[in-house]
Design brief:
This is Esterase. InterPro entries: AB_hydrolase_fold, BD-FAE-like_dom, GDXG_lipolytic_enzyme. It comes from Cellulophaga baltica 18. GO terms for molecular function: hydrolase activity. Keywords: Hydrolase. The longest helix has 15 residues. The protein has a single domain, classed as Rossmann fold (3-Layer(aba) Sandwich), CATH 3.40.50.1820. By secondary structure, it is α/β, with parallel strands linked by helices. The strands form two sheets. Strands 1-4-7-5-8-9-10-11 form an eight-stranded mixed sheet, sandwiched between helices. A three-stranded antiparallel sheet has the order 2-3-6. Helix content is 31%, strand content 18%. It has nine helices and eleven strands. 46% of the residues are buried.
Length: 307
Amino acid sequence: MTKIVIGCFLLFLEVGLLTAQDTILPIWPKEIPNRIDTDEREVKEYSEILRYRLVQEPTIQVFLPAKRSANGKAMLIFPGGGYQFLAYDWEGTDVAKFLNAQGITAIVVKSRLPNSKSLIEAHNVPLQDAQRAMRMTRANATTWNINPNEIGIIGFSAGGHLAATLGTHFNEEVYAKQDRIDDVSARPDFMALVYPVITMKEKTHQGSKNSLLGKNPSQERVEYFSNEMKVSANTPPTFLIHATDDTAVPVENSLLFYNALRENKVLASLFIYPDGGHGFGLGLHNEFLKEWPNQLLTWIGSLETKQ
């Protein structure tokens, strides 16, 4: 813990200008890795929910809670969308506002999507952006009034896959170091995975798999991104929620990850609802599902006594 605090202090001059009014910040202020110049343009569309497609410049959007209620915790949010788009408000900014109301700093990650023609080695790009976003958040801990040892992540659907990938691949060197921020740990302190895609094997969500890995990926790549196979004793404590009747992402995805966590003696809680389908977000339209965000808060609070 001492090393993390000292590291964040030394980084203050480098990142100290990122203040509360600068709510949207580039993940890569210098060179964006794995990017090539094309005529492709980012698409922002609104039809019931706000979606981003073909993200060209990844960002984080920082939501700071009121100072009087801030508790030092933070969560990075990874919206879903099958690695084809980002459900930016439904599984992003709406979640951030809920967390802010509970005193938690929220950071919505607008990561690049592997279906863009502006990318090289597209399968690595989401993890690159996720690692860097976590490092930026931890580097700004002092500025944003965050405890650098209480930074979690939450991901929905394909965003849940990205979150689980970060939680199991946080030590992988997937991009060249750009500055001192990249010396900071990318390990989340805890994870929440909401109807997540976990495996790239039999029970996967085929659309997410095709978008991330292509239609004929190697067995090695399939196993690398099947996160149930990458769980270790260093994987962060994890909260999982899924509906049994999810026809898009089978509930077996959460079961696979939960069992892997148990086998590695990682703290984990799994909540399975009998109905709710897929993409229910905060569950506001379901009498039972609407309780899951409060269950998450209770679970986060319990970590202080269990760790």
